[in-house]
Amino acid sequence: MKHLSRAYLILIFGILYIPILTLILFSFNSSNSTASFTGFSLEWYAELFASAETFIALRNSLILAVLSALISTVIGTAAAEGIYKMRSKFMKSAVNSVTNIPMMNPDIVTGMSMMLFFVAVAAIIGLEYESIGFTAMLISHTTFCLPYVILSVLPRINELGDSLSEAALDLGCTPIQAFFKVKLPNIMPGVLSGMIMAFTMSLDDFVISYFVGSSNFQTLPLLIYSMTKKKVTPDMYALSTLIIVTVFVLLVLSNIKSGKKLDAKKKGGK
Fold it and tell me: What pTM, to 2 d.p., does this model score?
């Protein structure tokens, strides 16, 4: 049974990471072949840094992801606090159910409905759709990121309870001061988790961006999709490798920081 468990674990890790390692390997291939590795080269990295189109798409993706993550975090944190404060169990349950719909809804349905909505809005206010392309995409990304923020923040608020906030109110804080000085610092891990998840979801999104986006604002997933109609160039492998390495380094640093905090707590407890 022990050997079977190890074999299963190796199989799962192989399925997860062999494709990523293959992509990293071929980003250093001296030719553009995906069938054979002909030699080590940094040619595709040089081509990547010389590609203005790729960097514009990457810049657009980062701007969109950062803005949608920040907006959805602010709105989602306020919404989680509002849901927690609801006295009616029925209303709280109903709002929670409605909040979860965007997560359960297929992306293609959300994308089509958003597209129809913004096309109608553009027609009503008399503007070309291209002129509201970025705004439409930002609103769409914020909308589908919101449930993930609420799902991350609300359990933290439920776990914290009202005792600290009530103590702050007794000591002379206003409700707003009690929230920002007492509650927010204690639920910050959930807020940061929600923001990171929103950033990741926005950066990774293709389906909704494909329906809602305009030709004058192209994100990285849309650029890569446009390449699949012909052939994905190896400089995209190089870009993907850089993203993978960046994420890996950030995860390592985060784990090291968390480990230091845990050690400090253990020493403090002793």
Answer: 0.81
